[in-house]
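Hi support team,

I've been running sequence recovery on a batch of backbones for a student project. Most finish fine, but this one hangs at about 90% for roughly twenty minutes before it completes. I'm not sure whether the input is malformed or the queue is just slow. I've pasted the structure tokens below so you can try to reproduce it. Let me know if you need the job ID as well.

Thanks,
M.K.
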């Protein structure tokens, strides 16, 4: 979840993103109980969880862009309103590069 190297196919991107989202929701539910006990500490921990989730999702997106033979810098498009919708759909639905590309071997090829 924290590496920006290599490639990630569509299915792995969606599954790993969903796992990260579920983990984030569970952490937020647990930390929301802490907010009622110690408001400052709870909000600090929620902020840390949010930053961690952002880094994880950003690294997944960069690796997915690598599978599309695009630079990770294309992920900046996801911060532009309306462009993010088109870019997000592209990242999710576009098929990856078949075979080796500039960022490594095809994640769908099985090595013997």
């Amino acid at each position: 979840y924290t590496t920006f190297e290599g490639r990630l196919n569509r299915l792995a991107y969606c599954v790993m993103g969903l796992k990260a989202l579920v983990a984030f929701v569970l952490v937020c539910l647990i930390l929301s109980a802490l907010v009622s006990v110690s408001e400052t500490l709870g909000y600090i921990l929620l902020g840390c969880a949010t930053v961690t989730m952002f880094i994880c999702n950003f690294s997944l997106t960069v690796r997915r862009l690598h599978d599309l033979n695009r630079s990770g810098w294309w992920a900046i498009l996801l911060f532009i309103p309306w462009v993010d919708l088109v870019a997000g759909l592209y990242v999710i639905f576009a098929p990856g590069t078949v075979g080796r590309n500039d960022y490594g071997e095809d994640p769908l090829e099985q090595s013997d």
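--
Follow-up from support: It reproduced on our side and the slowdown came from queue contention, not your input. The CA atoms of residues 22 and 28 lie 10 Å apart. No action needed from you.
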